[in-house]
Amino acid sequence: MNGQVNPNMLCRCEVRAALRTSWTPDNPGRRFLCCPRSGIDSCGFWTWYDPVMCARARAIIPGLLRRINGAEAEVVALKKNKKKLWLFNILLCIILLWKLMY
């Protein structure tokens, strides 16, 4: 955390600043404080909460995020396939039972 910045800081609106996380390519995972209000109601207050990340972290984090997002998408696809397989198995059982009966 930077020297004078504290998480209970008030913005220029005299409202407790919101602690957010940046996910831009230049500052992935870096935290900052900003006015919690949005649009025209915001006073525009903004300051970094933590120090600059080293070049290695800035290079690695976006790739890790892409891998996580890819893995989550794969899990969703597998769950969809699991439902399809379950329905296929039920249909197959019905067909086999029907053939055994007739």
Compute the number of strand runs: 3
Strand order of the largest sheet: 1-2-3
What is the helix fraction of residues, given as a range? 40-55%
* H/E topology pattern: EEEH
Shape: elongated
Distance between the termini: 76 Å
**How many separate helices?**
1
Low-confidence runs of at least 5 consecutive residues: none
Our Rg estimate from Cα atoms comes to 25 Å
Largest sheet: 3 strands, antiparallel
Strand content: 5-15%
Output the structural class. Answer: mainly alpha
Mean pLDDT: 86
Organism: Perilla frutescens var. hirtella (Perilla citriodora)
GO molecular function: zinc ion binding
Keywords: Membrane, Metal-binding, Transmembrane, Transmembrane helix, Zinc, Zinc-finger
Protein name: GRF-type domain-containing protein
How would you summarize what this structure contains?
The chain is mostly helical and 102 residues long.
What does this structure look like?
With 102 residues, this protein is mainly alpha-helical. The protein has one helix spanning 55-101, and strands at 18-21, 31-34, 46-48. It has a three-stranded antiparallel β-sheet with strand order 1-2-3, with no helix packed on it. The longest helix has 47 residues, at 55-101. The termini are far apart.
